[in-house]
Amino acid sequence: MALCRRVNLRVHWLVVLLALALAWPLRTRAGAGNVVEPGELYGVSALFSDGESYAHARRIACALEGAGIGSRDGMLGHPDPAELVGPPLYDAARAALAQTRVAQGDELGLQRFLAGIGPWAGALACFLVWLAASAAGAGALESLLAAAWVAVAPACVQGAEFGRLGDVAFGLVPLALAARFASRTLSSAEPLRAVLGGISSGALAGLLLANSPAGLVPFLAGAAAFAYWTFRSGSELARFAARAGLFYALVGALVARMLVLDGPWQADPGGLFAAWVELASVLAFACAAPFLVAMAREQFASKRFLPFLVMLAGAVMIVVLLARAREPMARVWDAWMQARALRPLFGTHSALSVFVSLTPLVLLVPLGWFACLRAKPGAASLYLVLLSAGTLVATLLDPELASWCVLAGALVLARAVTGWGKGARERRWAIGIGAAVLAVHALAGFLVLPDMSLHETRVEIARGLRWMRDHTPSPGPWNAPRAQPDWGVVSVPARGAQLAWDARRPAVFSEAGEYGKLESLRAAESVLQARNAADLTRAMHGCGARYLVLSPLEGDVDPAPDSGLVRRYASTRLVDRAGHALAGPGLPAISIWELPPPEKSEDSGPQMTPR
Question: What is the full DSSP assignment across 110-177?
Fold first, then answer.
């Protein structure tokens, strides 16, 4: 036993070193274009990859300063505050980590720390995937390959690169933990271990459910597996299987509901944040229905009619709650569909890029489904199949979930290949193909160099926005998301969150506003697409904008000379639409234009209206 423990400890350290040797350098190299060296740009210690990362950084900074966050943010949408549908639990975790590592008020240190969280989370996810594959019954070699797949897969690398604060990539940690606990529980024959496992996996699956509608996939996969375990087991095993499933659903509902906390994370009544928390908790509670039915049948067979009536009352309550949840469900669904339609504004992935991010190994995943289902699947195998198939369908609907599909596919393939036996020809082929694909992705990740010319252009843009913070009047407090600023700034939607972070100025429309009202988006588009000076001035006055930020990276052109706008800032770096520097004439990397306020007449003042 002591020898076995020493071997397991050595394997643990081997996996930790593998994760650090592959996951960490690949993710830091992928985000090398976001690194700002000391002295390169005053006031900035790191760049973020996208608008979502800037929005998360803003929420964390506001929480650290004690400001309320809520469901709306006036700095990410003007004059209509942006709707924030995502509950802030991951941001709360990042804020707690920042408090332990960054001195209060150190903005540069906070920015550098937040930008570096992604690689650490990616390395941790690789280690947890190895634990999950081992708990699912995979062999040592298969578990190592599953961890290596998550370490080098382009979707996982890009999602957790330096400078990115995506919730999907951060969610790989609870997803791997939920898969580990669920796999161990569904293979258990001990009542106490099954109940404790149901509580643990339910808490983690509820966390995923509460943070995103995509969390429905792992939560429903777990609920279906627990129900299969309950109704397909013998009478003695079914008793504690039903209780484990009941705890799974109830703890998931409780975790989803507890995310509406006091303090900076309090949800505003009527916001999408509150609507999704309410809906998530109801859906989790509804998953308790099959386990209540199983327990009611057990109580009726034992002629214990009072517990039987209690179970029936619980089933009726679930039906009532589901009927009441139709309105928030329709609201969240409409907001999610609207966000999908707006994603081309922020750069969507093509079908080819999604396939490459999944790696060609995803083509072997259906073979893993077939192998697991053919071998008289237990509840654990069914859980992995449902998790893998569900995440694949979700990825086709939302390419941002590709890293979840990679993780689930790695687990199901590791279990299927282990079941083929050590001497099986199929096992040798699968391991050989997998190792070759992983080697190619790892080599490509280490050989590809970032575009430093584009990096310098992004630095110029950040420098211009920092100039705007220091040299333009403030429209209101930056760290008060519920405040209504006096005026806004028009830019392309993909730069709205960066405006709020670097310039400390409110954006008319940003990536965070894709779930809310579209009036701000239409107002910003009317400014950017104005044909003449009169239309431009009218559109800027209509959306309450005082400044206009333009860059050739988005195809922006300078306003007409008679527009009435005054250029307040222009970068010295001239670039083309690809962001590369030009030797001859070109457009500044960033230009900041001001619309002067209308002059007040000298005799203007209070006017009396005759009756």
Answer: HHHHHHTHHHHHHHHHHHHHHHHHHHTT--HHHHHHHHHHHHH-HHHHHHTSTT---HHHHTHHHHHH
